[in-house]
Amino acid sequence: MQWSVPVPDDARAQLAPEQYGSNFCEAHGPLDARRAQLEAERCYYCHDAPCTTACPTGIDVPTFIGRIADGNLRGAAATILSANPLGGMCARVCPTEVLCEQACVRNGGETKPVAIGELQRFATDEFFAAAGAPLFARADPSGRKIAVVGAGPAGLVCAQRLALAGHDVTLLDARPKLGGLNEYGLAAYKTTGDFAQQEVAWLLSVGGIEVRNSTRLGRDLSLEDLVRDYDAVFLGLGLGAVKALGIPEPDLAGLGAAVDFIADLRQAADLGTIPVGRKVLVIGGGMTAVDAAVQARKLGAEEVTIVYRRGLDDMPASGHERDWAKLNGVLIREWATPIEVLGDNGRVTGMRFARTSMASGKLVSGSDSFVLAADMVLKAIGQSLNSGGLEDRIELRSGRIVTDENGRTSHPGIWAGGDCRFGGLDLTVEAVEHGKLAAASIDATLKA
Description:
By secondary structure, this protein is of the alpha/beta class. It has helices at residues 17-23, 33-40, 50-54, 61-69, 73-83, 87-93, 100-103, 116-129, 153-164, 181-184, 195-204, 223-229, 258-267, 287-298, 319-327, 428-447, and strands at residues 145-149, 168-172, 209-212, 232-235, 241-242, 255-257, 279-283, 303-307, 331-333, 336-344, 347-359, 362-373, 376-379, 383-384, 396-397, 400-401, 414-416. It has a 5-stranded parallel β-sheet, with helices on both faces. The chain has a 5-stranded parallel β-sheet with strand order 6-13-7-8-9. It has a 3-stranded antiparallel β-sheet with strand order 10-11-12, with no helix packed on it. The mean pLDDT is 94.
């Protein structure tokens, strides 16, 4: 396998083989049946429940928890999956602490909210372990064809909803596997085993979806081809281009993108083969930065530092994620921005940073600087849309696709959703809702 972020052998950290299994076991295990029952009985089953309102996909939380309490786990899963077809993965990675659980009425004077995310995972895991008869059935064939480009959360959900409506869907993705960030972009300890592919297989089981892997828009087909050959097009392209640091980036071993590092790790058969330095710097402050930093530590890096240009309270990563990084021995340096990549003999040796501060509401860099040594530097400062000429056909804003509230773009036959869509939270659960809304809009348009 060709690694995306190669590190010279004499700089690589290495663990004993048995340590990889323990380091990369699931970070947060599932509830057992007894604990799930007890937790479900803590729910007040509120009318007009604020937890449901706080869920971007509108899962009826009191209903599914009530069904768990009654022992009706299939019914609980049906409630979840009818609102969020990726409810199993979202239960693992959704920041419930700032969404549904933050809205739980038990937060008002009691010790903690109901563990909604863990209960959602319990119900969906039980369902996928023995799914039985299909939960949903396709409508009669409509004779209409839709192309869905991008098989991440938004594209997968859009494809499934359109197939259930009776349309024939062609699902195209640039990678060898479907799943998008669920397959390639999550920390390995957040979703162990092959759950992402299990969930994909369930979504495809509704029928009516033709899959074309390793097919890239702009290389293997054009938007003009799709508009000509299909009744509608949905773009769930994600953000495939890694943002540059804004300073010269020499071609040095050990300098690369955090998303590539994470993808390599997710696809590796042997974690011991993943190149990781002894001293690792991660530039950025979001969830990708935390995932890369923690996994570098778990792979054996001796020192891992996240460097962020603003203060802790401004970091896109949640407080829960920041605490997880610190628990795993990651140092977080605030108020610093990179000004120079340092290297020698074709390999990265560190970075020079300027100290930053806020002045009149703006972030400014001072004249004071410092150097941090490193044999591996991972960029996690965000990604951008690889537009591939899209701007010639549809409106873009700040490098993303402009849509209405239902995902329709400036082109009457094209919809879009997920991270490539302008505005929003860049969350898996939000991408799911984008896919749902776009599918409903496409279906209504084709039936009008």
